[in-house]
Automatic annotation (TrEMBL):
Name of this chain's protein: Uncharacterized protein
Sequence segments annotated as region (Disordered): 1-57
Organism superkingdom: Bacteria
Extent of Acidic residues compositional bias: 31-41
Cited InterPro entries: QatB
Organism expressing this protein natively: Thermanaerosceptrum fracticalcis
Amino acid sequence: MGTSTSNPGPFDRQPLLPSWALPPDTGNDAESNDGENESPDNGDQQDNSPLPTPPVTWQMAKASMSRFASTGERNSLSRAGRDYVGAKGGRRAAAQAASTGKSVALKVGGFLSTVASAGIRTALDEIGLGHMVGRSAPEVLAALIDVLAPAGATLQEAAARKAADDVLEKLYEDYIAKTGDVTALESLDKDGITNAIEASIAGYIYNLWLDELGLSIETKAISPLQAVGLERDVRVYVRERVRLELGEQDPVSIDWNGPAGRNIIDTVFQEAYGFLEVEQ
């Protein structure tokens, strides 16, 4: 996550702003029009329509997050979340741009549901890792992370891989560590799979938030305590949204490669960014 804090942000390019948000033209072109573009005289009539709200820029989002880092106040974090999602174009745009994070969540759901229903051998075979059957847990997990979230150069790919890595680490601690055998994952139940899906989504959103704003614990732009609090808030809300979307459905029975699975993940991502977009 060690992105430089001097990075102006991935989308702060002035030509993308609407015309009213661009710097005023200080030249003399307007004077040479000889009044051709002047509005007709409407007497005392005034335009009382509200002015459009200026867009949130990445500089504003970084400033809000820096304010939270310096104060640690809850309302500062809330404002930081709102400005961050605003800089991404709003909840819908943010969710639509999260294709890498969605892909990881769907792969996690699909793989683990197959493990629970058909066993680790079948699950590995279905994702092209049949040759890893019988190998040590570290070897299997190392191969699995490359399938779930291949290494890449973009912030989105880095955030997705970190989220997937955290999911596998948690699964190792909870299921595999005692025996060292990946077949222990076959004991996964509804809650275990749901927790893994939640973690993949929340981890992606949290990691990308810090990365896109150029913040990291390593550079001391945000303290470990603040990072833990931020991650906790995101995870708590995402957990609620995932469970709400799943309802009484068993994640094992959901086709995570089909419309049902995609609709669940799409909704959770949009609702999660919507939560950040609204100041609490």
